[in-house]
Amino acid sequence: xxxxxxxxxxxxxxxxxxxxxxxxxxxxxxxxxxxxxxxxxxxxxxxxxxxxxxxxxxxxxxxxxxxxxxxxxxxxxxxxxxxxxxxxxxxxxxxxxxxxxxxxxxxxxxxxxxxxxxxxxxxxxxxxxxxxxxxxxxxxxxxxxxxxxxxxxxxxxxxxxxxxxxxxxxxxxxxxxxxxxxxxxxxxxxxxxxxxxxxxxxxxxxxxxxxxxxxxxxxxxxxxxxxxxxxxxxxxxxxxxxxxxxxxxxxxxxxxxxxxxxxxxxxxxxxxxxxxxxxxxxxxxxxxxxxxxxxxxxxxxxxxxxxxxxxxxxxxxxxxxxxxxxxxxxxxxxxxxxxxxxxxxxxxxxxxxxxxxxxxxxxxxxxxxxxxxxxxxxxxxxxxxxxxxxxxxxxxxxxxxxxxxxxxxxxxxxxxxxxxxxxxxxxxxxxxxxxxxxxxxxxxxxxxxxxxxxxxxxxxxxxxxxxxxxxxxxxxxxxxxxxxxxxxxxxxxxxxxxxxxxxxxxxxxxxxxxxxxxxxxxxxxxx
Length: 527
Fold this sequence. Notes:
Shape: globular
């Protein structure tokens, strides 16, 4: 059975509150050159454009105040508006200065500030400043008196309209060959102009459906799709997207393009952006061990967090039920204080920990909130020590896990699918799920509790066996590793490794059981 049919997909949060401009167009006589402010990997940044007469694209440095912008009006809530498109152009110098001030205000997040405007319900143009930074965790809007609307946005977090369209579009919505050829010709004829005139344009594509109500309704028709940053906001000095090109409709959605691959380091190195598979450990004055692995990224109590094993961060105890409090906060470092490359600084603290083998599915989990905002992941990426590991596993480039997809019912998938583990010690190993429902127990002679050893029995776990070419699927230090089922090169989380068997197999706790134990405030993080 196809794994994709039984995976559970997290709904991405709609990070935009911009006005839908699908059916609106400002007619302006002035066409402006795209400003020199562009987001990273902007496909249009390298396009050669001839300057358009009458607009230099340059910005000046005078403070923007209500009295300095021509023909402005303010409503009772002190929101600043511009009457016409020409007013927006005339205020570009002042808005550029305000943009620089905002860049200083949010300097810790190293932002790019894009001045622009958005159309209101009454047709007037409202001043907007979009502050882009990969370190923005949640989109937010702030009304600033005398300035306008300030929108904080993560350029890598877009609304879910495009994804909703893909999910709702059935196989019957195919593009006939003649329509595809027609659309291709339209793109070839107009792409250079679009790239030059719209700095927030990221992708030009084709679709057989036009999106309505954020993808909830689909209108079957051939259309050119323009994927942009922060739909509804038009950068200063630019016009809105056209409504059609050569009689082919335009559909505007949020989206971006990114080159594959990323830079990473071995697990025991200090990672500025935390990654799954990193070496982590408890900050303690006692004898330090080698720690464990940074596991699946989750959102717990509205805080970006990661899972690992409770036994990595707590002394051995037959039962742990910990919740964070002001008097007993447990701090976690990456890499582990016991590592040869330890930095000693905290990256987070334990919010919740459960060690309870007596549950129907034995649980050994801790949730670590990432408290250092400078180290919060911007993508679901992995630590890696060498390229041969992911290439030998079947990946052409470093994989990412961004959509929060999980497999709860492994029985519907069978045990024929390949699985991969990203651990601190082994980095990346590949194997197969051979048993669903294995029970394990540490050696009673080691525990020294021969008559109560059944209380340490972990039931209803997975056994993942490494490929014959691999000596071990799991090594000490891999506790807390995220484990994924492969569907091609697509990753779907199935659980977290808690230990290993003497034959080298990994013992994995199902992800569904972990999320259920942690409660409704815990969900997989998405990017």
